[in-house]
Structures are given as structure tokens and as C-alpha cells.
Specification:
This protein has 112 residues and is mainly beta. The chain has a 4-stranded antiparallel β-sheet, with no helix packed on it. A 3-stranded antiparallel β-sheet has the order 7-8-9, with no helix packed on it. Strand 7 (73-80) and strand 8 (89-95) form a beta hairpin. It contains no helices and 9 strands. It has strands spanning 5-8, 15-19, 28-33, 40-45, 49-54, 64-67, 73-80, 89-95, 100-104.
Length: 112
């Protein structure tokens, strides 16, 4: 609820990494690992900002932030084919009106 993200290992109650205030205090409403690239995850905050984290490129801050300005996004999920090396990775955004929007991610964050 405060924008903090914690990365845990299943065998420990203490986080391996913790990023405080990663969304400038906005609650995170969805977070998901990339299906095609294990070191990348996406976070959606309550202000419809999507943060892309690539832990191999930068483990302190997100590598990109995209604001969805047109309408409030209420949730997101990712789509892709982890068994294929084509690097296609999409973000499915559900908006407050019920509209669904699919956006494809740049190859540099999608390729295995």
C-alpha cells in the first residue's frame, strides 16, 4: 500500500532486496514477473503508472516508467510464450470503463 516492493526467497522470512517508495508512495495494485525474461518484472500503481524493472540492468531503480494517461487502469497481466525465443511479451491492461488494452513490450525487456 505504500509503494514498497520486496523480493523474497522461499526459504527465508527476510527479503533478499527491498525497494522502499518505489512508486513515490502510490499503492501497487499489480505486479508480475515477465514470462519470457526472468530478471524483469512489471508493477502497476494506483495512478496508472507502469514501472519496468530489469534487475540485470539496474537493481536499484526501475529502468522505465510509462504513464497511461487516458483512463484509470485497474489491473494488468502479462502475456507471452516462455517456451518460444521470439521475445513477444505483451501487457494486458484492464481500464475502469471495462476496456481492455494490449501493448507489446520492447524486445530488450522481452527476449530471453
Amino acid at each position: 500500500s505504500d509503494g514498497s516492493i520486496r523480493l523474497h526467497q522461499m526459504t527465508s522470512e527476510y527479503p533478499l532486496m527491498q525497494w522502499n517508495d518505489s512508486t513515490k508512495g502510490q499503492p501497487i495494485i499489480a505486479l508480475q514477473w515477465a514470462l519470457t525474461r526472468p530478471a524483469v518484472f512489471f508493477a502497476l500503481d494506483a495512478s496508472s503508472n507502469i514501472y519496468i524493472w530489469d534487475l540485470l540492468e539496474n537493481d536499484l531503480l526501475p529502468v522505465a516508467k510509462q504513464t497511461i494517461p487516458s483512463e484509470k487502469v485497474v489491473t494488468m497481466t502479462l502475456l507471452g510464450e516462455p517456451d518460444k525465443a521470439n521475445g513477444l511479451l505483451g501487457i494486458v491492461l484492464a481500464k475502469e470503463s471495462g476496456q481492455i488494452d494490449i501493448q507489446y513490450v520492447k524486445k530488450k525487456w522481452a527476449l530471453p
